Amino acid sequence: MQRKELAQLLQDLLDGGASIGQTMERIGLEPYLETGQGLNLDMRRGIRTGIPEVVFGAGKSKEQLITAVKHLARAQNKVLVTRLEADAGNALTEMFPRGEYHELPGLFVLEQDMDLDHPWNGEAEAMIISAGGADLPVALEAYACLKFFGHTPGLVSDVGVAGLHRLFPHLPKISKARILIVIAGMEGALPSVLAGLSPVPIVAVPTSVGYGTSLGGITPMLAMLTSCAPGISVVNIDNGFGAACFAFKVLENQKSEVRSQRSEN
């Protein structure tokens, strides 16, 4: 968008020829940044969808990652990069000393303290429940993404069906949440258990944790998709990021509905 077009757009807003929503929509479709390294950064994604551009690190060169972080930092200050191996994460930390690489979930975060070594375990609008300790990398990805988007979730880990009694002390705070992210590998049973015990909507995340016939996460994914307990939505294998995006949009949509109801009353 050229300066003249932007000036006219803002003038239309001032003159009443366009609403704030129409103006935001128009700006949200502009621009994307061509970096010249095979990357087109969506600089207005946050305006358009509510979720800012997050860099998927796997498969990108160190040069591409550095370029992406540099440009996004100028536009939105804080930056999140997911699915990073240690060498790429350490390279970003060296280039951007104000950032931090978290090895277990494979995340680099610039200009935001995540404290992923001691995630918060209290009540929250979004609760993340992890079946096993081996599922924790995916749980921490979901936790960090939600926190990056502006929500501080709760996290309960290692309460899977092999020792189901471990889950029971957490049920009161789980039932007070507005959405659950439930993460499980092996046979993927924990989302079904929680859907049968809690009134809260669930987004289930199958993980690739398990022995041979778990088939790299396909078995828990199919188990979640065929659950007889209603109220479960399922994302892709190991997709903590996708689960966090879904939960964030649900929470934000609920807030919008509450605001609309209050304004009508």
3D architecture notes:
The protein has 265 residues and is of the alpha/beta class. The chain folds into two domains: 38-113, no CATH class; 126-253, Rossmann fold (3-Layer(aba) Sandwich). It contains ten helices and eleven strands. The strands form three sheets. The protein has a five-stranded parallel beta sheet with strand order 8-7-9-10-11, sandwiched between helices. Strands 3-4-6-5 form a four-stranded mixed beta sheet, with helices on both faces. Helix 1 (3-15) runs antiparallel to helix 2 (20-28) and helix 4 (62-76) crosses helix 5 (86-95). The two termini are 39 Å apart. The mean pLDDT is 83.
The gist of it:
With 265 residues, the chain is an alpha/beta fold. It contains 10 helices and 11 strands.
Number of helices: 10
How many strands in all? 11
In the CATH hierarchy, the architecture of the largest domain is: 3-Layer(aba) Sandwich
From the helix content, strand content and strand pairing, which structural class follows? alpha/beta
Q: Overall 3D geometry? A: globular
How many separate domains?
2
How large is the share of residues in beta strands? 15-25%
Q: What multimeric state do the chains show?
A: single chain
- Biggest β-sheet: strands ordered side by side in the sheet: 8-7-9-10-11
The SSE string, one letter per element, is HHEEHEHEHEEEHEHEHEHEH
Distance between the termini: 39 Å
Largest sheet: 5 strands, parallel
Mean pLDDT: 83
Helical content stands at 40-55%
- Would you identify the regions where 5 or more consecutive residues have pLDDT less than 50? none
- Would you state the CATH class of the largest domain? Alpha Beta
What does the radius of gyration come to?
20 Å
